[in-house]
Design goal:
A hairpin with a 2-residue loop joins strand 2 and strand 3 (41-48). Helix 3 (105-114) packs across helix 4 (126-137), helix 6 packs antiparallel against helix 12 and helix 14 (472-487) runs parallel beside helix 16. The chain has 16 helices and 25 strands. By secondary structure, the protein is of the alpha/beta class. The model has no long low-confidence stretch (mean pLDDT 93). The chain has three domains: 3-243, Glutamine Phosphoribosylpyrophosphate, subunit 1, domain 1, CATH 3.60.20.10; 251-438, 3-Layer(aba) Sandwich (Rossmann fold); 445-584, 3-Layer(aba) Sandwich (Rossmann fold), CATH 3.40.50. Bound molecules: 5-amino-5-deoxy-1-O-phosphono-D-mannitol. 5-amino-5-deoxy-1-O-phosphono-D-mannitol binds at residues 297-300, 344-346, 349, 352, 395-397, 481, 485, 595, 599.
């Protein structure tokens, strides 16, 4: 949610900021802005909409020579996406950018307004810059004024501030929202994640919650509640080429095609011929654990729902799944025999992170399944299993879901192994099936062309129902989420057996039913559910290895002997269908409206 960049050094700052923001644009793209102080001169530019508008606006501006600079790409939380609400926010002589939510901003704003400060925007962020200037005007040195400001903030923030009162210094603070510092000799970078600084910085420091400080003359002064601290950087190793589109039209498309390959990476060294090896877990990790509770949001939540079937069926261990934003406020009863698992692609989702912190406060052991090493959720967990999907840039998550589900399947087998609740021959059969999944994920030209053709029939209507049973129910939820995110058409996922308890009232020819009909799981049951819908004239698109005579449209999948292999193949079909519908509707596939890749506000 929102992206921040900063740079202090002699290079062309405008380009560094714009290139960095380009890498972060997926986090929010309602508006963007930059501010630069060079010598005594302060310049700032803002533009509503995508970054290209800001590029256009700044095309004649150059900023070579030593200076300080900050930039921001916004996903609106307080106030509409207008230029006035875009960051950086200006006081009288200082600028601030911020990611997160200042929860006590109304109280602070009232206080400042009573002292005569005029606010230009509707944002919570603007309070930071006015507070800073208030303290500075009272006679505090810039860093003292910044420190006093940060002490007044409640909520989540990653913030950078520059001021004419200290034109060679960038002030920074982090609490709850991600921020890192990159180093290349005396040049210093700031960013919300490492992609903007790959190829620029060679060392990095990931700021912890509660840290703040300033950078001046190439030196970072870092503080926490105990005072100034010594910190250690680490080498920045990342392959930027991985994050490019490599000839595909969209990142989402590339990421769908990549699934077969990355699944191999997810399994590498973990799925052996007759056992699952998870080096991340100590031998006695599951000692005393009788229940698993999983918390996640969105697509990651769907992956968790799938896993609940697997944990109970294969490992014979109780598993509850909760949406993180609900879990946070329900005063949950937590017992120490529960392993608390969080799932997150980004590792920065605010609700999931907070749920994890709650579980830790209650003394629970925690495990995260995440795609981003060093992310907040990974760092906060006792232990983490990385999904190894590689950078996912499409806002609509695809390969992250596939690899999360694979890791959870492995984990279910692993628990069955260590608790000896899984017979050896079942374990062997599961592993065999696992090894077949990369093949099930291959996108053939024929399949893609078929879905491209089909998609033209699904651009209207009054809604979609994705239906399935058992693990195909969470897949139905995920298929519906994918479609609505990028097509803006209404879609719901439903357990097939539940349709006649209400939703079937909607059935008519304009109601599109995407029926997940695996051969290996309750085929006859779902078949009768679909027949009931067909009898009421609903339009049926069946996805199944078995021909189905009542289907208006039919996507034939391969015969397989294992439900999870069918699951992954059907997952690809639903992803491609959503993609093709979105393309035909002319939508922005990778940056759908109103969404952001990383939801770092609650
Ligand atoms: O990074 P996370 O997995 O924690 O993100 C959770 C959701 O915000 C995310 O899955 C969202 O639903 C995606 N846009 C789905 O495609």
């Amino acid at each position: 949610m929102c992206g921040i960049v900063g740079y202090i050094g002699p290079k062309e700052k405008k380009e560094i900021l714009l290139d960095g923001l380009q890498e972060l644009e997926y986090r929010g793209y309602d508006s963007a802005g930059i501010a630069i102080i060079q010598g005594e001169k302060l310049n700032s530019f803002k533009a509503v909409g995508k970054l290209k508008n800001l590029r256009e606006k700044t095309k004649d501006y150059t900023s070579k020579g030593f200076g300080i600079s900050i930039g921001h790409t916004r996903w609106a939380t307080h106030g509409k996406p207008t230029e006035l609400n875009a960051h950086p926010h200006l006081g009288a002589y200082s600028y601030v950018v911020h990611n997160g939510i200042i929860e006590n901003y109304q109280e602070l704003k009232k206080e400042l307004q009573q002292e005569g400060v005029t606010f230009l925007s509707q944002t919570d962020t603007e309070t930071i810059v006015h507070l800073f200037e208030k303290y500075h005007n009272e006679g505090f040195e810039p860093f003292e004024a910044f420190k006093k400001t940060v002490n007044r903030l409640e909520g989540a923030y990653a913030t950078l501030l520059i001021t004419e009162a200290a034109p060679d210094t960038i002030f920074f603070a982090k609490n709850g929202s991600p921020m890192l510092i990159g180093f290349d000799g005396e040049e210093v970078y700031f960013a919300s994640s490492d992609t903007p600084i790959i190829g620029k910085a060679n060392e990095v420091y990931y700021l912890e919650d509660g840290e703040y400080g300033y950078v001046q003359n190439g030196k970072v002064h870092l503080f926490d509640s105990h005072g100034e601290k010594v910190f250690h950087t680490q080498p920045l190793i990342a392959d930027k080429a991985m994050a490019q589109k490599e000839g595909y039209r969209f990142f989402m498309e590339k990421e769908i095609y990549e699934q077969s390959r990355v699944m191999g990476e997810t399994m590498m060294g973990r799925v052996l011929e007759e056992e699952i090896v998870l080096d991340e877990l100590d031998a006695d990790f599951f000692k005393g654990i009788n229940t698993i509770k999983i918390c996640a949001c969105g697509t990651s939540y769907h992956s968790a729902l799938t896993a609940a079937y697997l944990f109970e069926r294969l490992a014979k261990i109780r598993c509850d799944v909760e949406i993180a934003s609900e879990f946070r406020y329900k005063e949950p009863l937590l017992t120490k025999d529960t392993l608390f698992v969080t799932i997150s692609q980004s590792g920065e989702t605010a609700d999931t992170l907070e749920a994890l912190k709650m579980a830790k406060r209650a003394g629970l052991k925690s495990l995260s399944i995440c795609n981003v090493d060093n992310s907040s959720i990974v760092r906060e967990s006792d232990t983490a299993i990385l999904t190894r999907a590689g950078i996912e840039k499409g806002v609509a998550s695809t390969k992250a879901f596939a690899t999360q589900t694979m890791v959870l399947w492995m984990l279910a087998l692993y628990v069955g192994q260590v608790k000896q609740t899984l017979p050896k021959e079942v374990l062997k059969a599961e592993i065999d099936a696992m090894l077949h999944t990369p093949k099930a994920l291959v996108v053939t030209d024929e399949l893609h062309a078929r879905l491209h053709r089909l998609s033209k029939r699904y651009l209207h209507g009054h809604g979609f129902f994705f239906i399935g049973r058992d693990i195909f129910y969470p897949l139905a939820l995920e298929g519906a989420l994918k479609l609505k995110e990028i097509s803006y058409l209404h879609a719901e996922g439903y357990p097939a057996g539940e349709m006649k308890h209400g939703p079937i009232a909607l059935a008519d020819a304009e109601l599109f039913t995407i029926a997940l009909m695996p051969k290996t799981m309750h085929y006859d049951k779902i078949k009768s559910n679909v027949e009931e819908l067909s009898a009421r004239d609903a339009t049926i698109c069946a996805i199944s290895p078995l021909p189905f005579e009542l289907a208006d449209d039919f996507v034939q999948t391969h015969y397989s002997s294992h439900p999870m292999v069918e699951f992954f193949e059907m997952m690809v079909v639903t992803q491609l269908l959503a993609l093709e519908i979105s393309v035909r509707l002319g939508n922005d596939v990778d940056m759908p409206r109103n969404l952001a890749k990383s939801v770092t506000v609650e």
